[in-house]
Write the structure tokens for this entry.
Amino acid sequence: MIDRPQAVERVRDLFRTHPCVAILGPRQCGKTTLARVIASEEPACTIFDLESPVDVRRLSAPMRNLGALSGLVVIDEIQRRPELFEILRVLIDRPEATTRFLILGSASPGLVKGVSESLAGRVGFLDLGGFDLRETGAGSQDRLWLRGGFPRSFLAPDDAASFGWRRDFLRTLLERDIPQLGISIPAETLRRCWTMIAHYHGQIWNAAELARSLGTGETTTRRYLDILSGAYLVRVLPPWFENLSKRQVKAPKVYVRDSGVLHALLELESGDDLLSHPKLGSSWEGFALEQVLTTFQRREACFWATHGGAELDLMITIRGKRYGFEFKTADAPGPNRSMRIALQDLRLEHLWVLYPGSDAYELDERLSVLPLRKLPTLTPMPLS
């Protein structure tokens, strides 16, 4: 097992201001393991796993059974019983309430009807993905990129076993887990859509083109995208646009969130397969982008592009200041016109070019090249 101290500390911070904390993320990303680590430090803790028939029966009368508990209560896979959200709201709002609730879910609040309204103002959220470089160590960068961050995939004894686990994971997810959310779409149809998104990984979303390929309407294709995004499998990165004297792109980009899942969808089993594939650059972009968002815990992020060709892969805002990131696989990336335009037009405090190498160097006063493995050194400086 790999320790996840940043995630544990984040949950503790959320409990300081919220009686309920939700850990949300894709299936098999380590939510249950993290919850049990937190529970082991509590003097009184009760755990319910809603995949267990025994625990489901224990919650057959949830108001009475949950209301009698004290300390920390963990409810795993809560999206299976969305009616519990309203009950939790009642229990949390009791004047004498001291019980804290840690709920785990594999679907976003938008995919589980009622959660946003039921627990608004009472719940803090932690978005948990697979392992990141802070947890695996910088020396594991290439393995993490190839296999992705799902614990069983990353920790597999070899690349072949990891690839096999990911293929089985995709099948189980599409045939069992997503239908359990009440979504009645044939697994093969959703897989075709997901595979097509993998081929569009890092590109501007074009609903019309995907709809033609799938033989469906644009509205249906958008619904498929929303389902995969709501299950934390695909990232829809919105564009940034403001009143500039340039025509700006206003459609989002799409990424498969986990690089290992992307490679499984593209049938890339080994490092050699990846290095010789046309999607190498896009794969690196998505992998590095997820590392940035995880490191800085940014839920709000965007990209920027103009119809004239200027673009920025990622922009995040911290304390009112804008920071930019570009992702390159070149051995020694240098400056280009697009970076200069982004620095000026977006008024960036700094722009970093993240690449797979090992040497950091300056290109300008506000433009630097940084190895991805050194990304954690940016926190808390210079973004504080």
In short: The first strand starts at residue 20 and ends at 24. The mean pLDDT is 91. The chain is about 40% helix and 20% strand. The radius of gyration is 22 Å.
